[in-house]
Amino acid sequence: MSEIVEKQSYDFRAIEAKWLPFWEQDGTFVTNTADSRPKKYVCDMFPYPSGDLHMGHAEAFAIGDVPARYWRLRGYNVLHPIGWDSFGLPAENAAIKNNAHPAEWTYNNIETQAESFKRYGISVDWTRRLHTSDELYYRWTQWLFLRLYERGLAYRRNSPVNWCPSCQTVLANEQVVSGACERCGTPVTKKALNQWYFKITDYADRLLEDMAQLEGTWPERVLAMQRNWIGRSEGAHLDFPVDGGHTVTVFTTRPDTVFGATFFVVAADAELATELVTDEQSGELEAYREQLKSVSDIERQATDRKKTGVFLGVYATNPTTGARMPVYATDYVLADYGTGAVMGVPGQDQRDWEFATAFDLPIVRTVQPAADFEGEAYTGEGPAINSANAEISLDGMEVEEAKAKIIDWLDSKGAGRATVNYRLRDWLVSRQRFWGAPIPIIHCPDCGEVPVPEDQLPVTLPTDMRGEQLAPKGQSPLASNTDWVSVGCPVCGKPATRDTDTMDTFVDSSWYYIRYIDPKSTSEIFPTEQANQWLPVDQYVGGVEHAILHLLYSRFITKVLYDMDLVSFTEPFKALLNQGQVLNGGKAMSKSLGNGVDLGEQLEAYGVDAVRLTMVFASPPEDDVDWADVSPAASQKFLARAWRLAQDVTSARGTDPAAGASGLRSLTHRSIADAESLLGAQKYNVVVARLMELVNAARKEIDSGAGPADPAVREAAEVTAQLLSLVAPYTAEDMWQLLGHEASVANTAWPAYEEALLVQETITAVVQVKGKLRDKLEVPVDITEADLEAQALALPKIQRYIADDGGVRKVIVRAPKLVNVVTG
Ligand code: ANZ
Ligand code: ZN
After folding, report:
1. Which residues are within 8 A (CB) of 25 and not within 5 positions of it... i.e. 6 or more apart?
2. What pLDDT is attached to residue 3?
3. Whose CA is nearest to atom 2 of ligand 1?
4. N or C: which end of the chain has fewer CB within 10 A?
5. What is the reported pTM?
6. If you ran DSSP here, which 8-state letter would residue 763 be given?
7. Is residue 435 a contact partner of residue 483, using CB atoms and an 8 Å limit?
8. Where are the alpha helices (DSSP H) in 749-805?
9. What is the Cα–Cα distance from 397 to 805, expressed in whole angstroms?
10. 61: Cβ below 6 Å to ligand 1?
11. What is the pLDDT of residues 141-198, one digit of tens each?
12. How much is the mean pLDDT over the chain?
């Protein structure tokens, strides 16, 4: 009885406990950036340290680890780093509540997350870990600010900004959602403040043009969102004389319709309205403005919103018709788009149509609609009509031709010119909050704005402020710390003050992926030569919630770094993958719905590998995963089955597989070949499905074929371990060892498939009816009984015999060689 070896059962806890410390001690995933093999850089959007990791992280990181591990097996030198986006409001709010310093909350949470992260077995290089709230990091965020400042790309201006009365901070336009603060839901108001901006608008065209590099490797919808956000419009600036000696310029995309401009509208909240309004009308304007404060930009522009406005008491003159156009202030014109003034063309613009109807203004069509078209603005194509004066006629021309002609004519009169307008605004980067990188500027009564000299960076945050001292007071909490604020002017030495605002955390995250190249450097932001070697990132992975801002800002900063000769690439992320969400019961997990699933509990119950495998297997990576519809228990069973294969193999390591069962060998080699194309197409879920088939086939070979000594079984088990390592690293590592190999499976060579084995071997099966040979079939040797029966019964000849003989009574199947149909 001595040959009977005691078989162990699959114990994920023991396997995790065994391999986690091994990888760490072995440095399995540490990247040597000086290594000369071809490189691949996989980057996951770094987490914000709120509480522990959750199911969303578990999904994103399981997905991001697949290409990282795959490319490692393919022989690339892979960089896969991790860090934390660790400045931001929640830490500060927690500190106020708990009478603590934000650093305490932040770094405690980071530790918790890092532990979970390690346990989760993601193949990252821990030696490159960074935190944006470390002095070591934000020194370079400040350095970057100063470089932008030098180039005129960071500037301060006084303007009305979005203000959240509850968070007591300014918000970028993009942080205002339906008129409310993205974070707390409080209605946003406008406040005039002196604020720092980055001049991203200078890069609008390049941000658009360079998207050509991303076509096909970024999700189309993300490119569309970037395009819309930048919002390039070709059109013209037209000048209109207005009573009182003013000239007001409008931006229009339809200069061809100028003959139909019958009124003039300006943004009620723009300075311009104040300049134009007559004394008699100014009271009414004030009252109108009051109502406007609580309406968001999006609501203001909605076509179905009732049109309102106030007559300003003055008229503009249409340069083509000489018509006197009453000037109104209205809310559907935005103060900060175009010039904040619009020529009202009700015949062709629906919002103008509604305004004209509400205020009983003339409507003149300048494009000919179809015969029965009426009751609304006509925005389609067609020949121009009603568009002629003594000097020029557009009548009969199509829109594009008419546009060109009228621009020429107006240009010759000095009353108009072609122009391009963008929806994109400069990036408001200052925040009146504590937990961020201080803006490295000193204000001197004599010298004005003075950049902090480089050798005085970083401007560090005070460590002794806590609790209530951090509460928002309409200005940065730093302003109340006079010790911190008072400083000698670096130029003249006189008493001066530090800028008390901190930077938007989007600044921190706009460049971290380059810092990973050398995160500990104290002498430079990053080493240019190595950055050029490693970037752009080959695969960036993260949520679609960052489809606009984070990506736009990162793209902008990359272009600025390019212009500074610090990098040689113009786009930071070659390919982008947006993973879906993890839902529960069809809905996003949330506290209020009580449908949250705790990641820690899942890991306890099923093990890391089962959770990871479930995430990857559930759907293509970009689709949502509904935790109510998946079965981590089934994943765990599959992993146990795969693991048992490795334990059952009895052939020696290195046995030539050529003598093994050909059916299984063929499946193994097809699995490798298919995995290559599936991984390339990011169909990670299908790779898992194929592995399940392979494991089943190998098991069958053990149980009813040549048994555990068949070298084809070893081959299948080894390939399973390697492919499985992409999603279930613990189980795969243990299998690899059971199969007699040295760890780590993560650093093995991708198995090569043999072309000849991809062809499925076939055999001729005979089909009998009542024992008589009636037809033949060419079938794969490993066809199942059910498939063989179905194929035999579907043969037209056989169907005829069955019909003539009174139907099927019984079918006897001997796969793959024989089917006998008993009829009558
Ligand atoms: C006259 C006109 C006639 C217009 C027509 C359109 C159609 P996009 O494509 O988004 O750039 N507009 C200009 N400034 C505006 C502002 N501050 N707030 C609201 N609307 C504004 O849109 C440009 C068009 O939006 C401009 O062309 C202007 O209306 C309006 F048949 O001018 B148009
Ligand atoms: Zn000075």
Report:
1. none
2. 44
3. 254
4. N
5. 0.85
6. E
7. no
8. 755-758, 785-793, 796-804
9. 78
10. no
11. 999 999 999 999 999 998 778 888 888 877 877 678 877 888 788 888 878 788 999 9
12. 93
